[in-house]
Amino acid sequence: MHSCAIWGLGLALGWIAILAWHGQGGEPDLLVNGITYGVVGIFALGLVGRCAKEWHPAFKRISALLACVVLSGVDVGLSGYRGEAGQKLFFASLLGIALVVLVARHSPAGLRRCWLGEG
Q1: Could you give the 3-state DSSP secondary structure of residue 80?
Q2: Quick one: which of 3, 20, 81, 119 could link to 113 by a disulfide (CB 3.0–4.6 Å)?
Q3: 57-94: per-residue pLDDT in tens?
Q4: CB 57, CB 38: distance < 8 Å
Q5: How many domains in the chain?
Q6: Helices (H), the chain
């Protein structure tokens, strides 16, 4: 349970940092946004992997993906980006999250067991 809390704290701090960054306004950097949401996705996968050990690995990946997509949508709504800027921001974050989930799917078994807490 201790490990679950650490991964949850990392996820929360990462998302709060993104919210603070977007709260400053201006045109967002889409590459940085995709990378930062990829990092949030790493923590989300670690959190789901450790807190739901009995779940199937595919369900863990899709749960982390959906949770991060919801966080990204809330982020776009709270940050005030509208129209094309909001869409670009959302899809850049979606791409970063999806790439992390794909890496989790196709990573070596040892890394996957360590990352998703299956070892």
Answers
A1: coil
A2: 119
A3: 889 999 999 999 999 999 999 988 889 989 999 999 99
A4: no
A5: 1
A6: 2-23, 30-51, 57-79, 83-106, 109-115
> End-to-end CA distance of the chain, in Å?
15
Look-up of token digits 């789901």: 48
12-35 pLDDT, tens digit each: 999 999 988 888 877 788 999 999
Prediction pTM value = 0.89
Q: How many CA atoms lie within 13 A of 108 on its CB side?
A: 2
Domain that holds residue 27: 2-115
Query: Cβ(18)–Cβ(36) under 8 Å?
Result: yes
Longest Cα–Cα distance in the chain: 44
The rounded distance, in Å, linking the Cα atoms of 68 and 97 is 7
Helix, strand, or coil (residue 28) = coil
- The Cα 104–Cα 60 span in angstroms is 10
Q: How far apart are CA 30 and CA 79, in angstroms?
A: 14
Token pair belonging to 98: 């999806």
